[in-house]
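Run: sequence + nicotinamide-adenine-dinucleotide -> complex structure.
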Amino acid sequence: MTSSGPGGPTPLSIDPTCRIEFGPGRIDRLPALIAATGHDRAFVVTDHGLRAAGVLEPVLKALEAAGLEHAVYDEVAPNPSTANVDAGAARARTFGTAAVVALGGGSVLDAAKGIALLVGNPSAAAADADDLWEAGDGLPLVAIPTTSGTGAETNGFGVIEDTAACRKVYIGHASVKPRVALLDPELTLGLPAPATAATGIDALVHGIESLASRGANPISTAYATQAVAMVSRALPAAYRNGSDLEARAELMLGAHLAGQALTLSGLGLVHGIGHVLTAHTGTPHGVALAAVLEEVMEFNAPAAQGAYEQVARAMRLAPPADGDWARAAIDGVREIAGAVEVKRPLRTLGADRAMLPSIAAGAVADPVTKNNPLSPDPARVLNILTTTY
Ligand SMILES: NC(=O)c1ccc[n+]([C@@H]2O[C@H](COP(=O)([O-])OP(=O)(O)OC[C@H]3O[C@@H](n4cnc5c(N)ncnc54)[C@H](O)[C@@H]3O)[C@@H](O)[C@H]2O)c1
Ligand SMILES: [Fe+2]
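>> structure
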């Protein structure tokens, strides 16, 4: 990472992403935050899991206490599809103009961005995603993440499965970048331990890949360094004891900072492999990343010494006797992945050996891989996959 090159200092142009409201019980501020968008009605997007876990309840209570007219669409599926987004948009169009409140993990946040955008473009469908980037404005969005992982509240696009065309589409627009990220760690107290581990590792990888990214700059590095410090300290504690509010709070803010970092810098090969592995096997995003994290770091180490030293120092690791900070960072990451029991061999994730060459080729071609500190070829990636099989 450098802020100056042979041509002098590198110029930067960075928009603050969104207003942040953070703290236990902050959900009480929701009516005021909706009012600040210029609306007095709310369309709440969520999923069945959140309703069943009782997370929707305090949100509805806050809306009711303020007398705010609202409707709920709770049918977002994990890795949402275009049909799912179209169904939510149909419901939202019937409800009419409102602020959209997205309550959930990355799946809900992504679907809600699509829904908000389609309401502003009444003749469009989610499968038109490629053309919607230049379309009319969507409804304003208030994002309330309930997993501490994706950082999807920091950007204005969602990753949606176009089941008819068998491809992922990116549906987004500047107008659906959340106006506010309402970060209330009390909403994550009931997130089960395996989901805490998978989503928390996602956040840690965002910090690490952001630091080592070719797109890193001093601002993304500041966010990513603090993200690694907070996530690495809080994740094992939140995994061990889900009701540790302090750990939940630190993890939530760390994951948000990691999202801010990656939005500015881009990511790398861990995400390149993770995307393709999830598409082939349905493995949850964070579990797919954990399967190859240390192995990709080993591969990148020759080109990422400074970034990995930054990772190791952020994790407060003791200075290594031999001065090999990259090795210290990799060992530190292995310890955290072990503590939260998220590392699995690829063969147990539904990837059969015959799939590995196409996973390797797909990972090299994935757009996130272009920011990896070393440019991998398919043979090197196949080698990484074989090592972790
Ligand atoms: N837009 C982006 O920048 C971005 C980045 C990375 C990933 N994503 C997308 O995010 C999705 C993954 O998101 P995720 O990892 O947050 O998982 P998720 O949103 O799919 O949620 C997983 C499960 O956890 C449950 N859950 C969520 N919060 C809970 C809580 N507080 N208590 C109890 N249960 C809870 C949900 O009901 C769901 O069943 C993928 O679709 C991925 O494509 C988007
Ligand atoms: Fe991720």
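>> summary
The longest helix spans residues 218-240. The chain has two domains: 19-188, 193-387.
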